[in-house]
Amino acid sequence: MKEVALNDFIDQQKIGRYQKFILLTCLLLMVMDGYDIQAIAYAAPLIMEHWHIDKTMLGVVFSASLFGLFIGSLFLSSLADRFGRRPILLISTLAFSVLMLLTPSVSSVEQLTIIRFVTGIFLGGIMPNVMAYSSEIVPSKYRILTMMVISCGYTVGAMLGGGISALLTPIGGWHAIFYFGGIIPLIIFFIMLFTLPESLQFMVSKNNDHKALLWLKKFYPKLNFSSELKILNPLILKTKQSPLELFKENRAFFTYTIWIISILNMISLYFLANWLPMLAKESGLNLNQALLIGSILQLGGAFGSILMGLKIDKVGFYKVLIPVFITGVLSVAVIGYSISNPLLLYVVVFIAGFAIVGGQPAINAFSASYYPISLRTTGVGWSIGIARLGSVIGPLFGGYLSKHMDITHLFIAAAVPSMLVIMTLVIQAKYR
């Protein structure tokens, strides 16, 4: 009987049509993940007017969903390692879809806080599992690029959310934002239910070689497969995948510093993503202009993800990330000075999005490139999960400071986390 290592076999093939379909489905799911996370930011100005609540209370709502993300990223990732990627992705997608559809029915800020927290838990099961899943079905030479493109889907979703919200709110108010965010993932759920296979690596690890072989035949229909072929996955069979492994064999320094970098960048990212539309509206822009600001931030992030990905392959992470984050510090710091000039504001916010929003997929890819293949999923999953702490802090940070600072000094303060990112990258580059 001929034995073939699963990863070696996939590395020798091109990406087939069915794999491309699966990757597209994963990308669409990430798009809706990004949209749904940002939905509350786009709805915020209307919710404040409707319920007559202050910004501090709204900051609690923002952070509730993001704290749910933190819990879901860690807990549901662990469940996926035990029960498989497919069931966790299906459950997570169905749950957050239904919860989004139920959100317009809430009648108080307390109810909104609770439902956003629970929604966040299930949304937290999407990104780590989608990234891990998508990386497992492509050859190794495309793995980093695939993960960055899939991550970019999150940014695209958040970007499109502003435009979609601007179109929907005149028709159905803030409720329409959440209805849209629930209906589309529900459609994706049914697509996945009938077309998405389990991770091949997971199948093999559970000694389900026959089923894995059937899916390989579907991935590569032009290849001739022998019934005597046995698929192996030595990475899962021989290597522990405990998070503790991230701190062994001189990996601890990198693990700690990449977590610090991720947390700091997420503070800046979610401060900007959640508060820019609100602050722009309070500074004199109309509602559509304020919503457009949020989309421009994410548009810059989409461009940043793609261009940084192409450049990183040629010159390396540090030579790209350090100059980019220096640019990010400067652009964020001058947002407050640009608020009276919408055109200048759009340019500055685009640059900030390029650096801060676009920098996060690059940080995720950096994590993936550092850890050995056997620890790649664990490393990326925990890096994303820990980074959610920053996404919780960012909105609270913005809500508190916005009550005690004018808008110019507020954005100077918002640039501080990115300055600390630069310092940590320099230290990491010198001592890792």
Descriptive overview:
A two-stranded parallel ribbon has the order 1-2. The relative contact order is 0.15. The chain is mainly α. The chain has helices at residues 6-11, 17-51, 55-83, 85-102, 109-123, 127-136, 143-195, 200-205, 209-219, 234-238, 252-282, 287-315, 317-333, 335-338, 342-370, 373-402, 407-414, 416-431, and strands at 3-5, 230-232. The protein has a single domain (3-431), classed as MFS general substrate transporter like domains (Growth Hormone, Chain: A), CATH 1.20.1250. The chain contains 18 helices and two strands.
Relevant terms:
globular; two-stranded parallel ribbon; 2 strands; Growth Hormone, Chain: A
Task: Quickly describe the structure.
The chain is an all-alpha fold.
Q: Output the structural class.
A: mainly alpha
Q: Helical percent range?
A: over 70%
Provide the low-confidence segments as ranges.
Answer: none
Number of strands: 2
Provide the gyration radius in Å: 22 Å
What does the overall shape look like?
globular
Q: Termini separation (Å)? A: 44 Å
CATH structural class: Mainly Alpha
Please provide the ordered H/E string of secondary-structure elements.
EHHHHHHHHHEHHHHHHHHH
Number of domains: 1
Going across the major beta sheet, what is the strand order?
Answer: 1-2
- The fraction of residues in strands falls at under 5%
Largest sheet: 2 strands, parallel
Assign the CATH topology.
Growth Hormone, Chain: A
**How does CATH name the architecture?**
Up-down Bundle
**CATH homologous superfamily - what is it?**
MFS general substrate transporter like domains
